Structure of Amidophosphoribosyltransferase:
Amino acid sequence: MDKPREECGVLGLWSESPLDVAGLLHLGLLALQHRGQEAAGIAVSDGQTFLVEKDLGLVNQVFTEERLQKLRLPEARLGIAHTRYSTTGSNLRFNAQPLTARTAHGVLGIAHNGNFTNAKPLRDRLLQEGATFQSTSDTEVMLLLLARLAHLSLPEAAAEAMRLLEGGYSVLLMNRKILLALRDPHGVRPLVLGKAPWGYAFASEPPALELLGATYLRDVRPGEVVWVEEGELKSLQVLPPAPSPCAFEWIYFARPDSLLDGTEAYAARVRMGEELFREAPAEADLVVPVPDSGIGAAVGYARASGLPLEFGLYKNPYAGRTFIQPTQELRDLKTRLKLSPTGAVKGKRVVLIDDSIVRGTTSRRIVRMLKEAGALEVHFRVSSPPIRFPCYYGIDTAARKELIAAEKSVEEIRAYIGADSLAFLSEEGVRRAIGRPVCLACFNGRYPAGVPEEGEKLALELF
Ligand code: SF4
């Protein structure tokens, strides 16, 4: 549906007493499925044995009952899990996480959301020193750095690795006994800590904690490493925090019921819609969201404007994933399979609300669909600014040349998608709605956590 894509979700738990770690992590992963649909994996340990199962596919495709059974250690106490989306060409089984390595710290498992922007020079240095890599993922650079820091305890080694690595990342790390959570000093990617009757849990988003039976305690602080060792929760502020969390988590990625860094995603989306009305009102009869991504902002726009909110588009919940089709006609049918207009738009002037426009191709099809269904006018309102730059911190926004706003003015985009008017929410409007300083680099090109040396996104695919 031509949306930016989150690249990963992470989840981990540590329990005082034996627990069905694999079963709980499987449940929690289902709550993070929206953060990655191409691979899933779980690692568990009982203090002696360390097991990992991972593969390409959705969580429920990878974790059949038979596969979960292989992970069910009777005395299991800790584990981490991962769900992944990857850039084109790198959706390979050996990149599925958790990645593992046998090191002086014992067997290490790592699950990572985000990107290390200096992974390539670090990888080159490690190669010169004789290291070998099993994957093409930047995550393995951290794993090999940890292996080299054999003279330090695992939490000290994790802190030292944080001092060496740059970029936007949230990482879960485990050996047979200790579970660690790390967040970059800008806190670009989310990571939350929860408390359960049996111990502690970490997750990309709070709804996953709830499925583990844990309640949200707090966010892992930017620049902090938190670990659970022999039942004790410990923390070290490794780097000074300079918070700049990803605005897109609130605009689109995070589940609407997620509370991130103190701001609920749904409430922020509603406020974005209210801000959007203040900045760009339209003469119209009703407000229609592009489901599901535009719903929160449409509620806000309708509330602020006093216009009725109508579901003018039906989203087929059973459409599933379809693959890119070569002809224009088939691409149109693909959109039609997922979305179709309802009678609500006939003879009406419609304000159509979506959270973002990436390439503009789907937006164009939706506008045409509404007009064919009898909408008199379609005024397109977008609850984020135009995306002009790629993301280097774990989001696939498409290459710069594919971003319609990198090449075209707002008026040119309006003409391309065939809307009667078009407006985007300002950066200031996004900041006000979220209520905190945030990363807006894909809108303004100001990257808080650096960019990779070679600039382009696939530089992060290391081989
Ligand atoms: S560049 Fe955009 S998508 Fe990437 S972290 Fe910043 S706000 Fe999020």
Observations:
- The chain has two domains: 8-244, 265-444.
- DSSP finds 16 helices and 23 strands in the chain.
- The first strand starts at residue 5 and ends at 6.
- The mean pLDDT is 92.
